[in-house]
Specification:
The complex is a heterodimer of chains A (about 170) and B (about 160). By secondary structure, chain A is mostly helical. Chain A is built from eight helices and no strands. The longest helix of chain A has 29 residues.
Chain lengths: ~170, ~160
């Protein structure tokens, strides 16, 4: 992780990074918009996962839920990713030393792997079970993993406000 | 008993003090509150986007709304269960925060609006509602609920 540490330490010295860090209104503004993006993204991902798990939105075939919600999930992710990256750019060393930031990033990586595994796995046969109440176990597993991972991402994000277990 | 006295009174409960003094309980309650918020917004937006004519538009609005209802109801319960301890343990901060009062007032309006106007429109025959009204009702719902969530985030920041 040393090269990453060097990168973060380098960014930490940028005048624009220092500017974001020292501006008193930017932090609350960015954090609030980040949460707005989170509401849209996580909300609609959860709705999709509940359908895939077979416990929610069962009156709609899975592919309709997935295709129709995807553009809005992307909007939410774009909002959260943009504000999140600016927050990170403004205080790279604060996050580098924060255990919950690492947990959040790792969980997002795992969520992406889970998404790809599902997309190129069980999703290939979706036409067979699209409208069914009984969903293949592989798909339900992907949904359960996704729900748990995004919940941990949200919780880690909230806990980043605390400096417990900070690394040096 | 006036409102300020009331806040001071429940802020002094052993339960309130216990939550305030334990960093762990408070932090995890906040975290679960946000997860519940995610589910709640999902259940709200899935219907409002449909009302706006986007989202799952192959399905009748009433079907989308019926599916979303249990998640709306139970995630709101989860928000209450995780919200009340935060209020108890932070009573004086909440009392003096204009964002807290704004949030609570808009929340009451949003709940009433959802149970009356929005419910009637989502359950009505779509051909009778007309394309404009559905959109207006969905948009108002989105604006109301974000007007609850945004000041909530600001209570602890400003």
């Amino acid at each position: 992780m040393l090269p990453l540490r060097h990168l973060f330490e380098w960014v930490d010295t940028f005048p624009s990074s220092i500017y974001i860090r020292e501006d008193l209104t930017l932090f609350p503004l960015l954090l609030t918009v980040h949460v707005v993006g989170m509401c849209i993204f996580s909300g609609l991902v959860i709705m999709m996962d509940l359908r895939l798990l077979g416990v929610g939105n069962m009156r709609t075939p899975f592919t309709q839920v997935q295709r129709r919600l995807f553009p809005w999930q992307a909007v939410g992710m774009a909002v959260s990713a943009t504000t999140g990256l600016i927050l990170l750019y403004g205080q790279p060393m604060r996050y580098y030393t924060n255990v919950f930031w690492w947990s959040k990033v790792m969980m997002m990586v795992l969520a992406s792997v889970n998404l790809l595994a599902f997309h190129f796995g069980t999703y290939e046969s979706v036409y067979k079970w699209d409208s069914d109440a009984k969903i293949p176990s592989g798909a339900r597993l992907a949904a359960a993993i996704s729900l748990v991972l995004w919940a941990v991402v949200i919780m880690s994000g909230r806990l980043m406000a605390y400096n417990w277990f900070n690394k040096t | 008993m006036n409102m300020q006295k009331f806040f001071e009174w429940f802020g002094a409960w052993p339960l309130s003090l216990g939550i305030r003094e334990s960093t762990w309980i408070y932090a995890f309650v906040q975290s679960f509150h946000l997860v519940a918020l995610g589910v709640f917004f999902g259940s709200v937006l899935i219907v409002d986007l449909r009302l706006l004519g986007t989202g799952m538009r192959e399905r009748p609005i009433a079907q989308v709304a019926r599916d979303a209802w249990p998640w709306y109801k139970w995630s709101f319960v989860a928000l209450l269960v995780t919200g009340i301890p935060q209020l108890l343990s932070n009573s004086s901060r909440e009392y003096y925060s204009p964002y807290f009062w704004f949030k609570m007032e808009v929340m009451i309006v949003a709940l009433i609006y959802t149970a009356t106007v929005r419910r009637r429109v989502t359950m009505a025959d779509e051909s009778r509602v007309g394309p404009i009204w559905g959109k207006v009702v969905g948009l108002v719902s989105i604006v109301l609920w974000f007007s609850v969530a945004i000041p909530a985030r600001l209570i602890g920041l400003l």
